[in-house]
Specification:
- By secondary structure, the protein is an alpha+beta fold.
- The protein is built from 14 helices and 21 strands.
- It has two domains: about 290 residues, Aminopeptidase (3-Layer(aba) Sandwich); about 120 residues, Alpha-Beta Plaits (2-Layer Sandwich).
- Strands 1-2-6-3-7-20 form a six-stranded mixed sheet, covered by helices on one side. Strands 14-16-10-17 form a four-stranded antiparallel sheet. Strands 4-5-21 form a three-stranded antiparallel sheet.
- The longest helix has 20 residues.
- The protein starts with a helix and ends with a helix.
- The structure holds zinc ion.
- Zinc ion (ZN) binds next to loops.
Length: about 475
């Protein structure tokens, strides 16, 4: 194809191309900086190294051109940083977390978790993918823009949390208390893995969740099943009968009255996106060791995963479960269930429906809520969507895959509901990042690509304020 000289020159010398070249030429330096951050433990659940990491992170942010401040909580602090260029430019709120999971089992690591090691094009360390590597990529994107353009092209506000791996117990409150500080036009989160094809991914939402525990009680102690069997009822049967009443397994439908209330029908755009996600049914069947015929086909697979709620039994226990025989009528039976929710189901309301169902179909069985999170979804036809897709295309030279939602749950509602802004999750880690597991790693190529993506997103947003 003929390429005009002037067009060619223009392309090569565009500010964003310069930023990409800067990123490429500073690869080793960025990796060294990341290694330093990874070498500093920050295990939130154990409270290890949190303050040291927060301090180190603030220094990196300052060096990248952000003004920082620490937001204290009764748990671990959040680190805030911003670079404001003007009210005529959009404001992007970047979320990430600097805490990491514990490292056990330590023997399974090929190299120590807090001794970052590069091998086979990957950097291995706890936090490499989840989330320090992705967070650092965002910061280096900001730094590269600042170096080349003198400033960031759009207003940037970063909020980096120190207790994400601990369930984000203070994030909601901090956001509520700092609404004007965190005011933005959109939120971007870089966490999680890319699609296994390596194509970039833009995720528009998450499912919510409500987690309950059901307890059926019988006699005040386990009873001899011969001496007492017959006249005395068994709580395990009662629990099983209740569970059976909650779902029509064959039809795949939850039988709790009102459970499906408020569910927003999926849009034409969402259906189109669901159809376009590559699905490797054979691969999944092989990987999980389940029959191919058990897997939904075509868009049905992702429709079920991303846009429909579930009611799942996580565990059921009671009575004797050891080796051999023990003839008893158990005194108690328990089941733990999680329901994944989709917009606009409300976890509190769904819990109320479950409570009512249990009262009607499982007399005397107790139900307790153990946790919940709201679902969240940003409409695909949001004005920023195509800008972000263009930005990802520019940085990766690949066509992004659009997920209308994750199957899993994240506190995305904090952005969409509390701040009332669209939220986009743009993961940069390789799909085999082994997050939460031994030998966590981030491909260097992904780290560099993430850095470019961040720079590209900010640049594209600045040029296309809608
Ligand atoms: Zn994690």
């Amino acid at each position: 194809m003929y390429k005009g000289t002037s067009a060619h020159t223009e392309e090569v010398s565009s500010p964003l191309e310069k930023v990409y070249r800067f990123v490429d030429s500073h690869r080793d330096e960025f990796l060294q900086g990341l290694s330093k951050l990874l070498a500093q433990p920050s295990i939130s659940t154990l409270g290890v190294g949190i303050n040291e990491t927060a301090k180190m992170l603030m220094d990196v942010m300052e060096e990248s051109g952000l003004r920082t401040r620490k937001i204290e909580t009764s748990g671990h602090p959040l680190i805030y940083g911003d670079a404001v260029v003007g009210p005529d430019k959009p404001t992007v709120l970047i979320y990430g977390h600097y805490d990491v999971q514990p490292v056990e089992p330590i023997d399974a690591w090929a190299t120590p978790p807090f001794q970052p090691t590069i091998r086979d094009g990957r950097i291995y360390a706890r936090g490499a993918g989840d989330n320090k590597g992705q967070l650092y990529a965002q910061l280096m994107g900001i730094r590269s823009l600042t170096e080349i353009l003198g400033n960031v092209p759009a207003n940037v506000k970063c909020i980096f949390e120190g207790e994400e791996e601990n369930g984000s117990p203070h994030l909601e409150q901090v956001v509520m208390d700092n609404k004007s500080l965190l005011k933005a036009d959109l939120a971007i989160t870089a966490d999680g893995p890319l699609h296994e094809s390596g194509r970039p991914l833009i995720v528009f939402g998450v499912r919510g969740m409500v987690y309950v525990e059901l307890t059926a009680r019988g006699a005040n102690r386990d009873l001899h099943s011969g001496n007492w069997g017959g006249p005395i009822a068994n709580p395990v049967w009662r629990l099983v009968r209740l569970l059976n009443s909650m779902k029509d397994v064959k039809a795949g439908r939850v039988n709790v009255s009102g459970f499906y209330d408020r569910i927003k029908p999926i849009t034409v755009e969402e259906m189109k996106a669901l159809r376009a996600i590559p699905l490797d049914r054979e691969g999944i069947s092989r990987e999980l060791g389940i029959r191919l015929s058990e897997l939904p086909e075509g868009e049905d697979y992702y429709t079920k995963l991303m846009t429909e709620p579930t009611l799942n039994i996580c565990g059921i226990y009671g009575g004797y479960t050891g080796a051999g025989t023990k003839t008893i009528i158990p005194s108690k039976a328990t089941a733990k269930l999680d329901a994944r929710l989709v917009p606009d189901q409300d976890p509190g309301e769904v819990f109320g429906r479950l409570e009512k169902h249990v009262a009607e179909h499982g007399e005397g069985i107790e139900i307790k809520k153990l946790g919940s999170m709201r679902p969240s979804r940003t409409p695909l036809d949001n004005p920023f969507s195509s800008v972000i897709a263009d930005a990802m295309r520019s940085a990766t030279k690949k066509e992004p895959i659009i997920y209308p939602s994750l199957g899993a749950s994240l506190p995305d509602y904090i952005f969409t509901r509390i701040l009332g802004i669209p939220s986009f999750i743009t993961p940069y880690a390789n799909h085999d990042e082994s997050n939460h597991a031994p030998n966590e790693n981030l491909k260097i190529e992904n780290f560099i690509q993430g850095t470019k993506c961040c720079a590209s997103i900010l640049t594209h947003l600045a040029g296309d304020r809608r």
